[in-house]
Task: inverse folding
């Protein structure tokens, strides 16, 4: 039995910290998922990758199947954040953010920290910087 916690601390902490700004944005926008949900999603996906390391150490296909399952699960969770109203759909940005947060956790779990950082940064920039452009599209920012 291997109880070396230190090798898992950095990826788990990175996943958690990189998801916080995304959760903060969704919280400030008063969306269905926010400051608690996003770090937990990243932590869970990272943890699942790490928990299966011994099972998949010499089998890239096995790891690919685990990642495929996580991607599918994140799509399912994200689908729950989307609401269809009379003539509009809400929650698509939150759903997409949940999906990318799962990817951040996976990237941190396989220690691709450069990918995790880029995913987090581009998601945060997209959510914050592109929001004002919604005014020019003729759609209400509350619709996302």
Result:
């Amino acid at each position: 039995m291997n109880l070396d916690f230190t090798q898992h601390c950095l990826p788990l902490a990175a996943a958690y910290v990189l998801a916080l700004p995304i959760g903060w944005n969704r919280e400030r926008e008063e969306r269905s998922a926010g400051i608690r949900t996003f770090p937990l999603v990243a932590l869970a996906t990272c943890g699942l990758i790490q928990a299966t390391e011994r099972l998949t150490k010499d089998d890239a296909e096995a790891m690919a199947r685990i990642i495929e399952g996580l991607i599918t699960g994140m799509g399912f969770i994200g689908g729950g954040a989307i609401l269809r109203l009379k003539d509009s759909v809400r929650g698509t940005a939150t759903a997409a953010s949940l999906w990318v947060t799962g990817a951040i956790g996976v990237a941190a779990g396989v220690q691709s920290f450069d990918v995790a950082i880029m995913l987090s940064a581009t998601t945060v920039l997209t959510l914050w910087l592109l929001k004002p452009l919604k005014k020019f599209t003729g759609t209400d920012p509350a619709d996302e």
Notes: Residues 6-135 form one domain. The chain has one domain: 6-135. The longest strand covers residues 83-84. Helices lie at 6-28, 37-51, 53-56, 60-80, 92-109, 113-129, 134-137.
